[in-house]
Amino acid sequence: MHKRTIKDRIHWIGAVDWNRRLFDSLIPLPDGTTYNAYLIEGSEKTALLDTVDPPLAEPWLARIAAEPKIDYIVSHHAEQDHSGAIGQVLERFPQAKVITSPKAKAMLMDLLHLPEAAIVTVTDGETLSLGDKTLQFIHTPWVHWPETMVTYVPEDQILFSCDFFGSHIASSDLYVNDTCRVYEAAKRYFAEIMMPFRGTIEKNIAKLKPYDIRIIAPSHGQIYDRPEWIMEAYAEWVSAQPRNLVVLPYISMHGSTQQMVDHLIDALADRDVRVEAYDLVVTDIGKLAISLVDAGTIVVGTPTVLAGPHPVAAYGTFLANALRPKARFLSIIGSYGWGGKTVETLAGMIPNLKVEVLDPVLCKGQPTVQAFEALDRLADAIAAKHKENGFA
Ligand SMILES: Cc1cc2nc3c(=O)[nH]c(=O)nc-3n(C[C@H](O)[C@H](O)[C@H](O)COP(=O)(O)O)c2cc1C
After folding, report:
1. 4-238, which class in CATH?
2. Neighbouring C-beta atoms of residue 70, cutoff 10 Å
3. 28-76: pLDDT as tens digits
4. Where are the alpha helices (DSSP H) in the chain?
5. Which of 166, 177, 294, 385 is most buried (CB neighbours < 10 A)?
6. Which residues form the signal peptide (predicted)?
7. What is the pLDDT of residue 1?
8. With DSSP H G I counted as helix, E B as strand and the rest as coil, what are the percentages for the chain, rounded to 5?
9. Distance in angstroms (rounded) separating the CA atoms of residues 152 and 338
10. Are the C-beta atoms of 292 and 195 separated by less than 8 Å?
11. Which phi and psi angles does 319 have, rounded to 5°?
12. Each residue of 113-126: pLDDT tens digit?
């Protein structure tokens, strides 16, 4: 898409990837994505903020090459979808300096083999004058790599936040205009990219508080010209208090675990506990991750296969452990044929989850009356724990 003006001499100059359906070879992207680069023309110097993903670099570089000058290339984040075309921009503008954090300098040299001489590092809070516009660099470590930083332009009150507050939506809209749609996309993005670093994200949100931010221009998705709601949403997502919600990822080969899952859903609903259940065979793991942002309890449903959990249930559990949601309770339900170590194996896969494990319910073959009663007791225990802890 063509260059688009945000404010006087501040432009979006990114690329829209309408058809991308998977990110990081992991994350489903139902709506595609954008790679947002920005051009800021001060009265003396011009800065390019980030680049685009290398597969989209070719048509994008033609537009960049048409710019009369680029003095600085600000690299907020060394990940290749933003930094991958810096080398080609330097070929067109060999006198340009790459401005980045000290940690990102090392990473840009490792990941992209950028020449050391082209890179200038900036400290936390340092400013760079473009003449009548100023770039102020704010280090935001672990949002979501160790080297990340953002840029604030005080004259225009814009925060260029890189992946912070981002969302994956391909659109011709420059600004967010469908808040509901962007809320879900931003929550999906948060769940998969930011949730593992909840604690540091919270600190970095606090670090941005003193700045008068009227516009947030992230590196994926549309620009927020009313940034309050996304900042409020982030504050809620990083908060320590989960909701009165059970997330139930499960799998069933012959229907026995499915019957247990169905029973538990009803039992929890009868006790006013919300449930979001995901059959891992068909689920979009992004949806599962979104639910994990709020979950008070996780219940994994799995049959025993080759003496342990079904491999797909193990994958779901491994992913939940890696994403480090704030859930406080966990249990395991499922059916088996003769025996195995399903509970021990799954319980050993969640060292990152700070959860109390509630009594699992395993039953041989199809669930019996006793198994259904045990599931009712599990629902009682979950409802009581949620109430005691004030999960709303
Ligand atoms: C490939 C395969 C391997 C299995 N391995 C075990 C096992 O190691 N231990 C066990 O108790 N049951 C084992 N089973 C039996 C299932 O756990 C049992 O049929 C269970 O009731 C299936 O639950 P579902 O109906 O929810 O799929 C295995 C079943 C299959 C298909």
Report:
1. alpha beta
2. 21
3. 999 999 999 999 999 999 999 999 999 999 999 999 999 999 999 999 9
4. 57-65, 80-83, 86-92, 102-112, 179-189, 198-208, 228-238, 256-270, 285-294, 311-323, 342-347, 369-388
5. 166
6. none
7. 83
8. 35, 25, 40
9. 62
10. yes
11. -65, -45
12. 999 999 999 999 99
How far apart (Å, rounded) are the C-alpha atoms in residues 344 and 362?
A: 12
Distance (Å, rounded) from C-alpha 303 to C-alpha 313? 9
- Cα 89 to Cα 78: distance, rounded to the nearest angstrom: 15
Whether 301 is in the pocket of ligand 1, judged by its Cβ within 6 Å, is: no
Q: Are residues 291 and 190 in contact, defined by beta-carbon separation less than 8 angstroms?
A: no
What's the whole-number mean pLDDT along residues 248-270?
98
Residue whose tokens read 């080609």: 88
**Residue 254 CB less than 6 A away from ligand 1:** yes
- The DSSP line for 93-112 is STT-EEEE-HHHHHHHHHHH
> What is the average pLDDT value for the chain, to the nearest integer?
97
User: Cβ(252) to ligand 1 under 6 A?
Assistant: yes
Task: Write out the two tokens for 72.
Answer: 């600085």
Q: Is the CB of 317 under 6 A from ligand 1?
A: no
Token pair in block for residue 106: 């090392």
Mutate to test the pocket of ligand 1, among 261, 281, 304 (most ligand atoms within 8 A of CB): 304
Q: Which among 248, 305, 341, 366 is the best mutation to test ligand 1's pocket, defined by most ligand atoms within 8 Å of the CB?
A: 305
Domain ranges in the chain are 4-238, 247-384
The CATH architecture to which 247-384 belongs is 3-Layer(aba) Sandwich (3.40)
